[in-house]
Structures are given as structure tokens and as C-alpha cells.
Amino acid sequence: MITGTLYFFIKKVYEKGEDFETSLGLSYAYLSAGNIKSAKDTSKELKPEYPYQEKELNEFHYTLDRTIGPVFDTKYSYYHDSDDNNVNRFSLGFWFLVRKLEK
């Protein structure tokens, strides 16, 4: 559960009325605290009115998907020094969330 002054401030503003930015902030706060279910629930209620809000909502959903979904990563590095030593390194990574998703 989210603790601290920020949570209570956001919750207080959220209860006063529907505000897109506040609701989005609450969703991000839940996500950063690891409460995936609450983050999903609060983001479902978001209804953007302006194009910039649609962009922010899409960024949130992208962040949510990257947090809970599997992630593939590829990297390449190259090293060369004055002794003509060359190193080419390729790596492939895969990770996923290993904790309880529903709280």
C-alpha cells in the first residue's frame, strides 16, 4: 500500500472531483508501490478530453505493460585499443515480473 504525504494529498484531491491528472498520478503512485490491480482499476476510469491527455494515458499504458509484461533486450558493445585488440560483444536479455500481480 502507498504510504506518505503524497498518497494522502492525491487521494484528497481525487475525492473532491474527477480530475484526469490527479487520477493519472494516483495510477502511477499505485504502480510505483507495486499495487498493479489498483493501478489498472484507476487507469480504466480515465477519460482524456484533450490530445495531450491521450498521449499521457498511452505513455502510462506503455509503462504498465513494460512493468508487468515480459521484456526482451538486445545489446551490442565494441571495444578497440591501441594494441589492435578488438572485442565485439552481443547479449540478449529476457525478464519478467516475479511477484504477485493482484494485491
Main attributes?
103 residues, alpha+beta, 2 strands
What does this entry look like structurally?
Helix content is 50%, strand content 19%. The protein is elongated, with a radius of gyration of 20 Å. The protein has 4 helices and 2 strands, in the order H-H-H-H-E-E. Strands 1-2 form a two-stranded antiparallel sheet. Helix 1 (5-16) packs antiparallel against helix 2 (20-32) and helix 2 (20-32) packs parallel to helix 4 (51-68). The model has no long low-confidence stretch (mean pLDDT 82). The longest helix is centred in the middle third of the chain and has 18 residues, at 51-68. It has helices spanning 5-16, 20-32, 36-44, 51-68, and strands at residues 71-80, 86-95. The protein has a domain at 5-68. It is α+β, with helices and mostly antiparallel strands.
Please render the helix and strand layout as text.
Elements: H1 5-16, H2 20-32, H3 36-44, H4 51-68, E1 71-80, E2 86-95
Helix pairs in contact: 1-2, 2-3, 2-4, 3-4
Mean pLDDT value: 82
Residue stretches low in confidence (pLDDT < 50, at least 5 long) are none
Question: How much helix, percentage-wise, in residues?
Answer: 40-55%
Largest sheet strand order: 1-2
| Count of DSSP H/I helices | 4
Proportion of residues in extended strands: 15-25%
State Rg: 20 Å
> Major sheet: size, sense and barrel closure?
2 strands, antiparallel
Secondary-structure element order, N to C: HHHHEE
